[in-house]
Each structure stands twice: as C-alpha cells, then as structure tokens.
Amino acid sequence: MSGDGMNPAAVAQPGEDVRGDDRWMSQHTRFVQECKDAEPDVLFVGDSMIQLMQQYEVWREVFSPLHALNFGIGGDTTCNVLWRLQNGELQNIHPKVVVLWVGTNNYEHTAEQVAGGILAIAQLLTSRLPNAKVVVLGLLPRGEQPNPLRQKNAAVNDFLRSWLPRLGQALLLDVSGGFVHSDGAISPQDMFDFLHLTSTGYRTMAKPLSDLLRQILNEAPEDRRAPLV
C-alpha cells in the first residue's frame, strides 16, 4: 500500500491561493465553523464532484434528509482533503458515515500514488471516527472518448478495491456504471463537460449510494463498528 509519508499524494497541503481571493481557506474556515453547530449523520468530503452535488435537486431530495453535511471544494486533491481533515473539519462532529470522493485532480501523481493518498485519508477517518463507516466513491471515467486519464482513474479504483477492505470499516463503491456507452463515448447528458455530472448524472450515481447509506444508518451502533464486506 502507498498511503505513507513517502507518497507525495499523501502529504497534507492546504489549497493554493492561485487567484488571490483566499476562497479556498475561507471555505475551509466555514466548514470548521459548521462542525461547531451541526450534528451530521453523514459527512460528504472531497472535490467538485462532492461540492456540485449540493446544487442539484438530488441533494435536497435524497441526501440532505439524511442529516448530511457537504465539505466539497472544487479542484481539491488528496493532499488538500487530508490537510482539511487534519485541521479542524472533523472536530466536534460524530457522523455515522463519511462519503469520500477525491483523486481525479491529482494530475501530478501516478495511479498507485493517488490510491495511496485516498487510502491515507480513509485511514485518518477510521482513526478519528472509529464508530463511522467510510464509503469511498470510485473515480469516474472522464473525457468524451477513451483517453489516458480514464485508464488512470480505472487503475486507481483497482488499487482501492484491493486495499480498502484491509481497513475493516471502509469500502469502495463504484458508481460508474452506465456512463460509458458501447462506443466508448460519454454523453453530455450525463457529464456536461465530460467530467462533472449533470442532474441526470447525479441521479444515476445517487441510487446505489443512497441505498448503501440508508442500510448503514439503519444498523445498530455495534453493527456499524463491524467490518464492511
């Protein structure tokens, strides 16, 4: 496994203020404040795939009723999410489930390194939240036609499929089914820019995720501490 300090994708780093408006840190600060006021059963954390979910009906209709918090920041890498969680975004909250979706922005890193970064986050979550289950969403295919980044994301998922069960309370949920058509193309009806999901795309991935979340939330506390299978 590559979830150690020698892996550059597992080194915690705050987001860069490339535009000069300090928006990244402002969003992080808001999340830390939310931790003081909220009592979520489900915590969503990750990059724009998590952040944008909140803009669609599926969040209001499916996930918000589960007492969910959304800690997504567009452009985040595994390094950024790791830093955020180490610096206040897990304080004062005790979610029953954490949904983690990050990694597609780790352009500098190999598939094994990206998977190691995701694993490092999952390890932190299981350590800080020993009574919570961790659901890692698999990276989606990207680009209208087959390309190297699709292959890389698929390889990341393969590593995670092998590594995550060893943590006991974490699993990979692959929500990519149906996005790639028989000719290898992705439809703009599912991903408007061939990366980010449309309302239809979020509906597609929401069904298996919401089913799993409801199953976990309905478990007795002692069952939630049992390993995921």
UniProtKB/TrEMBL annotation:
Alphabetized GO MF terms: 1-alkyl-2-acetylglycerophosphocholine esterase activity; platelet-activating factor acetyltransferase activity
E.C. number: 3.1.1.47
Domain spans labelled SGNH hydrolase-type esterase: 44-203
InterPro entries documented for this protein: SGNH_hydro (IPR013830), SGNH_hydro_sf (IPR036514)
Catalytic activity reported: a 1-O-alkyl-2-acetyl-sn-glycero-3-phosphocholine + H2O = a 1-O-alkyl-sn-glycero-3-phosphocholine + acetate + H(+); 1-O-hexadecyl-2-acetyl-sn-glycero-3-phosphate + H2O = 1-O-hexadecyl-sn-glycero-3-phosphate + acetate + H(+); 1-O-hexadecyl-2-acetyl-sn-glycero-3-phosphoethanolamine + H2O = 1-O-hexadecyl-sn-glycero-3-phosphoethanolamine + acetate + H(+); 1-O-hexadecyl-2-acetyl-sn-glycero-3-phosphocholine + H2O = 1-O-hexadecyl-sn-glycero-3-phosphocholine + acetate + H(+)
A Pfam family that the UniProt record links to this protein: Lipase_GDSL_2
Coiled-coil segments: none
Name of the molecule in the record: Platelet-activating factor acetylhydrolase IB subunit alpha2
The organism of origin for this protein: Cyclopterus lumpus (Lumpsucker)
Gene name of this polypeptide: pafah1b2
